[in-house]
Amino acid sequence: IDTLVYAIHEEPWPANTAAPYAFIAHTLVTLSETRSRIVIINTLTNCLRTLLRYNPSSLLPALYLLSNTLSPPYSPIELGIGSSVISKAIQHVSGLTPAALKRLYNASGDPGDVAFEAKSNLRTLVPHPPLCITAVYDSLIKIANVKGQGANKQKQTIVEKLLVAAKGEEVRFLVRTLSMNLRVGAVRTSILTALSRAMVLTPPSNMSTPLSIDSSYYTNPNLLAAVKPLSTDSKRKVADESRDRVLAKFSLAESLVKKVFVQHPNYDHIVAGLFEGGIPLHPTLGSPTRSLDEIYDRLGDLSFTAEFKYDGQRAQIHGSKDKDGQVFVRIFSRHLEDMTSKYPDIVSLVKCVFASSPDLQCFIMDAEIVAIDPAHGSLKSFQELSNRARKDVNIQDVKVAVCVFAFDLMLLNGEILLERPFRERRSLLRVNFPPQIPKEQGAARLDQVDSFDSEEGRGHVEDFWMKAVESRCEGLMIKLLDSGEVPEEFSLQKDKVKKKPLPATYEPDKRTSAWLKLKKDYVLSIGDSLDLVPIGAWHGNGRKAGWWSPILLAVRESTTGDLVAVCKCMSGFSDVFYREMKSRFPEDSDTCSRLPQWECITGGFDPDVYFKPREVWEIRGADVTLSPVSLAAMGLVSQTRGLSLRFPRFIRVRDDKSIEHASTSEFLADMWRGQQGKVKDDQACGADD
Length: 689
Ligand code: ATP
What we know:
The chain is built from 21 helices and 23 strands. It has 689 residues and is of the alpha+beta class. The strands form five sheets. Strands 14, 15, 16, 17, 18, 19, 20 and 23 form an eight-stranded mixed β-sheet that branches. Strands 3, 4, 5, 6, 7 and 8 form a six-stranded mixed β-sheet that branches. The longest helix has 31 residues, at 233-263. It is globular, with a radius of gyration of 29 Å. The structure holds adenosine-5'-triphosphate (ATP). Adenosine-5'-triphosphate binds at residues 285-286, 307-310, 314, 334, 368, 407, 449, 477, 517.
């Protein structure tokens, strides 16, 4: 930490002007001159801090330029520019003959160096205004977007404009960027490390709850002392303490940012999250099971708790309090959308929680928001909750009262709890967040989940299950309390079963086997619902003329992300829904086309129109069948046939899920296998009887 160059220069470019591209070029020059990881990280950290302080809107394009990408890896934007376009542009701008240019290429081999040399002797008569970071990024996007006839010529024109305006090292790094080879040692992890350190050291001024760490820290004089070079021993002691704290903040910020990035590699969202304060984590998900027996088999002898699976909306609640006592609250959906403005009553609840616990500084909790009867707190259905307005709700207008059932705690007072076993997280949750029925007008309730621990007597888990069946909840969530080892496969010879470790830690973005869900519907044998994407439809007949019916639904291929048609659905829709559906997907619009233009795999289905995939629907079916028409899950259970859903029925639109959260072909195949298992079990039981 002593070697970090903390001081950033004041006003590195004229105040209130956009950050110049020369600043990125200069950073890249510095990076290209070293192989030291420390220097690389320090240089990047200071580069990003300077942008954060003097021109935050350049931060995102700078991250893309430094990493030589234009977009997240999962939706790549390609420049689509060949070396000949670049050479032609260099030649045109520099005025060199092809032979002279060839000599330069032979001498260095790097197009950036060639361009630098070619332009170095050129005098420009009319000075060009300096290139700025955002303009360079925008030009690259423009290049990527040019398609069709004459594209190369148009791309060349944009490159030439950039080259004419570029000066000195800008020329070298622009061309290296265009050639997709920066030749610097800045790799993704260094950029993420630098980004998190920059955020710790120079948080943007509008960041209310930076990384969910208490914000008072950033104005702490100790930190300011630590960031200056240490000169005398007398200062060292004070600085040593603050140094530890800075290092702790670094490691917290780095682990958060990196964890988020590996699961959600998108600088746009991460930077937006950092600015807004509080990065939400992708939630842990549960694995479906069919019976308590299956749960016992899967968890072996380990202790677990059974919790009510409430039927509401999942919420990740971030709360923090600054040194003046001001409370910041953000509420994220399962899909990480910010829904703070939908729940002013929960914001008010969190304020009450802070008011009643003076030692509480910040937290991130996982919870289910459930509609309740305000008089006695009894549960209401999900439908009631979905009647609430979505945005900018005034607390006075809240008609549907809610209760927050907190079931997990991921961060408490600056400490990340993800690696702690569930038993510890739960106990911190229970101690720090006791039930509250706030006196505050309109505030939501807070309650602990109804639960039963297997240690209280496994035999009584059944009773608890019956209680769940009779109540207004979806079933049970069974959660492992402590990390341990579980049977690798089910076997009748229990002593010969191989074991595998199963952690009881919080596993962001995983469908973990340490959380098992047992839905009433499963056990009552209708099967789990699927989350499918509408990708096409046929023109309706009779009463449904003028509407889309049936509708073609797709699962997501887990490996490629392709959407693959699985079944036609024509039941469960109301007339109102059909009407709205038609307005969301009007014929011959940008969401509905007669030609297949959104790259979905329709197999043997031949719909009249194709929809732009943009919604996820919960669908329930009678069972999963082998199908000669569907290509879904082809190869997973049969080499010649795909899987389809019999008697699919629409349940609801899952606004909280995006296409990436749609059920996968793997999930469908698992359902089919589960069903086969059940058939066999039933047959076996029959034989025994
Ligand atoms: P589903 O479609 O069944 O709601 P999902 O894909 O949204 O499932 P799962 O992991 O399968 O998510 O089921 C867990 C969901 O159940 C959570 O997302 C949460 O919204 C809800 N839930 C209700 N009560 C609990 C609880 N006690 N613990 C965990 N999750 C709960």
